[in-house]
Structures are given as structure tokens and as C-alpha cells.
Amino acid sequence: MKKTIITIEREYGSGGRGIGKKIAEKLGIKYYDGELLSLVAKESGYTEEFIKQNDQKRTQSLLYHLYIGSQILPASDMIFIAQSRVIKDLYNKESCVIVGRCADYVLRDCDDVIKVFIHAPLESRMERVKNGYGEKAENYKAYVQKKDKSRIAYFNYFADDSWGRADAYDITVNSDVGIDKTVDIIVDYIKAKQGE
Q1: How far apart are the first and last CA of the chain?
Q2: 47: left (phi over 0), alpha (psi -120 to 50) or beta
């Protein structure tokens, strides 16, 4: 297989993280999601704990506007910049799967990037969050929708408004067909795109 970077954006509860791991295993390449945090810590000099607290957050508070006014970037922006450097470095080094973190946007001008979006019906995602992820919520529908809104806000803050838009990805897959079937569909697409 020639060098390929697969980026995965996903609706919350669609199984994107597990799908990404299985794709990496099937293709024999590395997988990055939370693992990126330690690389970002080395790049930025921040502690992993600090990065976890500020990762994938956007700032709209009064504090943010004070930062902008004094031309000091908020922590989330500085982490995004460091994270972008790490993602570009990975692109230059190896084939891998990167889940989330606006990787598709960061690598938008790079060759050999296959952009994937995973989605599923809300009911299926609620079920997976409750029984698959074991998360507790009083109202699973509101919980899942809030998580999606947070992902959309993060993506749109750092990238653009293409999160979830089919034309922004090489392939979008409804994971309601099952995790393993979704993995097979995506791997088949990758191989077809590479002419294998």
C-alpha cells in the first residue's frame, strides 16, 4: 500500500473511534486520536494535563476578546497550532489514521489524504452511547446533540463550515450497517482509490 493518510470526522456515538482503530489495524498503519496529545505536549511544551483541559475547545468568553485585544492567543488556539504541526509532521512521515482534530482541514492541501465522515441515525447513536460507551445521561438525545454541537463549533471555529457536508469528504458512511461492515466499506474504498 502506498502512503495514505486517512482522516475521520464523525458524529458523536457513530463509532468513529473504533472504526478508525480497526481501519488502522486492517491496513497495518498507525492510529492517532488521544495519542496525539503526547506528541502535541512534546511539540508545544505544555503538559498533557493542560492540553487535555483545553483540547478541542473554542473560546468565546470575555476573556477571549481580551486575549484577542492584547494579541495573545488563547490556550485552545495555541494547542491547535501545535496540533496542526504534529499532524503535518505525521503526514510527512507515515501512513496513518487520524480521528478528529480537524485533521482533514489541516491537511486540505496535501496529497494522499482520504477524508472520511462517519454518521448514523440519532437513535442508533443514543443506543451506542448508552450501552456501548457506558455513558450516563438523563436525556441521551440532548446529550448526543450537545456533543455534536460542540464538535461542529470546534471544527467551524478552526476550519470552515464543511463539517458533515458530504461534498467535503471522499466518502461518508452510515455506521448503522455495523462497525465491521463500515470498516470493510472504507477499506475497500481506500484500496480502490489507490488502484489495488
Answers
A1: 8
A2: beta
Report pLDDT for 43.
78
Looking at per-residue pLDDT, the higher value among 76 and 149 belongs to: 149
Separation CA 164–CA 155 (nearest Å): 10
pLDDT digits (tens, 9 = 90+) for 53-107: 766 555 554 444 454 555 567 778 888 899 999 999 999 999 999 999 999 999 9
